Amino acid sequence: MDFTTMFMFCLFVSFLSFLFLFRLLLKFLTSGHRKLPLPPGSLGWPYIGETFQLYSQNPNVFFASKVKKYGSILKTHILGCPCVMISSPEAAKLVLVTKAALFKPTFPASKERMLGKQAIFFHQGEYHSKLRKLVIRAFMPEAIKNIVSDIESIAIETLKSWEGQSITTYQEMKTYTFNVALLSIFGKDEILDREELKRCYYILEKGYNSMPINLPGTLFHKSMKARKELGQIVAKILSIRRQMKHDHKDLLGSFMGDQEGLTDEQIADNIIGVIFAARDTTASVLTWIVKYLAENPSVLQAVTEEQEEIVREKRGEEKALTRADTKKMPMTSRVIQETLRVASILSFTFREAVEDVEFEGYLIPKGWKVLPLFRNIHHSPENFPEPEKFDPSRFEVAPKPNTFMPFGNGTHSCPGNELAKVEILVLLHHLTTKYRWSVMGPQNGIQYGPFALPQNGLPIRLSLKT
Ligand code: HEM
């Protein structure tokens, strides 16, 4: 190779290198996020990540030890996904409220299939807003007011069936919250196939946390079959409703009355979704309350006195409870708040970054899951002094902003919170004024499946006060 060829070759290579470096520089400058570091933390084993650690120990310990080691924003890898966990109130607000558009709700595909792809939790944007408006209409205080006495009848009947019995609190509370959910969805109409609906729902829930293998004989397969039957039952209820002339104020009425119209499939997915959101959550909270009241006699005494005062005000008459009565229960309401905080039955929620997001100086890459850790926020001594202590009086003063989120925050926050509180208050009214109970067996264990629950669902023995 002569000198000129050599020179030309070097020039060409230099030009290519320059082009390459220039493109790199351009990419570096235009994609500002890329230069940011990922949050601190560990991704654990390939694929499994740290799932095993999370599900094999108390989530309090798992989250708290991570936060202690890495700070309030950290990376981990659970359930096959890289995740960023956040545990400061400000960051949770950013993800759930201020920058909610950058973080979409996300669930495993198998769960979407099981509940119904069109259910409210899985959506963002216009369809979500439309559904949310319809759900809120059915669960706003004005609507709940009209069903307080019906909720009370369910509570009285439920408690009567436990008299003199040993029961598993969680199982029985699930029956109560299921019946209240059906009341709020279908109103007082006699529901054709009510028992069939319950039977299918129980099969569906059994398979909810199973391996998503849709082969005959598997729990998942049975659940999917039950889900199909549930869809058919709701379709039947819908067609009966269509033949009725008058308006209904319940959730089904709200869905059916929408001018733009929801399809039958959309209605079915959302009805099954609301049962799912309403039942186990409220039943877990009620179970914890029964436990905390049994463990704290002075709190139980104060709640009982408050409830007895309401009975006295009614002068012993068998008058039904009203929404106004439930507003005269500040002590009982604080017990509910403190239980929601201490038990934090939903330890966290999931979102997914829809694009690369810069977050407190770190990069959250597109597609990564983001987990606001409600439990950590509720158990931080900065937000709640002596956080492990059950002390309802702490709610005599309002908590600091964004530190108390048992019902979430922002566009996906719980539209059923009013109903949940009312059905808990009504049951507690009759439980504390008419009954005494004692917890049977060991009382300190906690099980997670997926909600935090007292061990074995809290077996108790209940008897009428004499
Ligand atoms: C004490 C009981 C309850 C607790 C602790 C609770 C908690 C929550 C939380 C934390 C969220 C937000 C999840 C997220 O942001 O990812 C949520 C959403 C939801 N909850 Fe509840 N909930 C309870 C009872 C209920 C009841 C009784 C109903 C129905 C009547 C209900 C219906 C819903 C629905 C439909 C959503 C989804 C809202 C949306 O995506 O826009 N919940 N709940």
UniProtKB/TrEMBL annotation:
Transmembrane portions of the chain: 6-26
Residues that, per the record, bind heme: C414
Catalytic activity: 2-cis-(+)-abscisate + reduced [NADPH--hemoprotein reductase] + O2 = (+)-8'-hydroxyabscisate + oxidized [NADPH--hemoprotein reductase] + H2O + H(+)
Keyword terms of this UniProt record: Heme, Iron, Membrane, Metal-binding, Monooxygenase, Oxidoreductase, Transmembrane, Transmembrane helix
GO molecular function: (+)-abscisic acid 8'-hydroxylase activity; heme binding; iron ion binding
Keyword Transmembrane helix: yes
One Pfam entry name: p450
PROSITE patterns associated with the record: CYTOCHROME_P450
SUPFAM superfamilies recorded: Cytochrome P450
Top-level taxonomic group: Eukaryota
Cellular component per GO, a single term: membrane
Topology of the protein relative to the lipid bilayer: Single-pass membrane protein
EC number: 1.14.14.137
GO biological process, any: response to abscisic acid
CDD domains registered for this protein in UniProt: CYP90-like
Enzyme class, UniProt record, top EC level: oxidoreductase
UniProt keyword Mitochondrion present: no
Protein localization: Membrane
Required cofactor names: heme
Family: Belongs to the cytochrome P450 family.
UniProt protein name: (+)-abscisic acid 8'-hydroxylase
Organism: Camellia sinensis var. sinensis
